Amino acid sequence: EPRFAQFKLVLLGESAVGKSSIVHRFVKDSFDDFRESTIGAAFLTQTIQLDENTTIKFEIWDTAGQERYKSLAPMYYRNANAAVVVYDITQEASLERAKSWIKELQRQANQDLVIALAGNKLDLESERKVAKEAAQAYATEEGLLFFEVSAKTGQGVKEIFQSIAEKLPLE
Ligand code: GDP
Ligand code: MG
User: Fold this and answer.
1) Mind listing the pLDDT tens digit for each residue in 98-116?
2) What are 75-79's contacts with CB under 8 Å, separation 24+?
3) Residue 7: helix, strand or coil by DSSP?
4) Closest ligand 1 atom to the C-alpha of 36?
5) Tens of pLDDT, residues 115-157
6) 37 CB near ligand 1 (under 6 Å)
7) In 7-91, which ranges are continuous DSSP H helix?
8) pTM of the entire structure?
9) What is the pLDDT of residues 44-78, one digit of tens each?
10) Residues with Cβ within 8 Å of residue 38, at least 6 apart in sequence
């Protein structure tokens, strides 16, 4: 019997880590080296086939990372089913910012929110500043899904959404 479910997903993380690029890779399977920064938030949808019978529609809020928009974030995560918190593997400080978003989500969002931590720009391996093992250990400790991805090459991007879909409750 065919099943259909719809989930709200929010992207959070410091400005320029590649949130919009990850969403565009997932929704349009494209990448832009000169993406304009997001103002406020952008809304996109994408449907995936979880298995033969199960279709999942994601309603995605791609938020702006800038501090001046920080007060708007609760509007987007409050009734979300899933959150993808993004950092840039070449920017140590962006992982610290991701951790503070995760703390905020753990305190303020739905208790059953599925949270994924995603280290982006994996194609810039030669400029890496954040060890995979350190971020992975933190994610495991906090009970988060964890991925390293590249919006530029597409590596790992679909897997974020696929794994989230597998963790979300279906009737
Ligand atoms: P946002 O502010 O978090 O939404 O970040 P954007 O998606 O606007 O990306 C910021 C900059 O990083 C842009 O110049 C992108 O082209 C670049 N970028 C995003 N993802 C990647 C990636 O996976 N690899 C590389 N090399 N650059 C990326
Ligand atoms: Mg953006």
Assistant:
1) 999 999 999 998 999 999 9
2) 76/10, 76/41, 77/10, 77/12, 77/105, 77/108, 77/109, 77/113, 78/108, 78/109, 78/110, 79/8, 79/110
3) strand
4) 8
5) 999 999 999 999 999 999 999 999 999 999 999 999 999 999 9
6) yes
7) 19-28, 73-77
8) 0.97
9) 999 999 999 999 999 999 999 777 778 889 999 99
10) 19, 20, 62, 63, 64, 65
| CA 120 to ligand 2 center in whole angstroms | 13
Query: Residue 99 has which token pair?
Result: 């951790």
**Phi, psi (deg, nearest 5) at residue 91:** -130, 100
41 pLDDT more than 90: no
Q: Tell me the mean pLDDT in the region 75-94.
A: 96
For residue 87, the tally of other CB atoms under 10 A from its CB is: 26
User: Distance between CA 95 and CA 16 in Å, rounded?
Assistant: 13
Judge if the beta carbon of residue 120 lies within 6 A of ligand 1.
Answer: yes
Helix (H, G, I), strand (E, B) or coil at 26: helix
Q: How far apart are CA 162 and CA 146, in angstroms?
A: 12
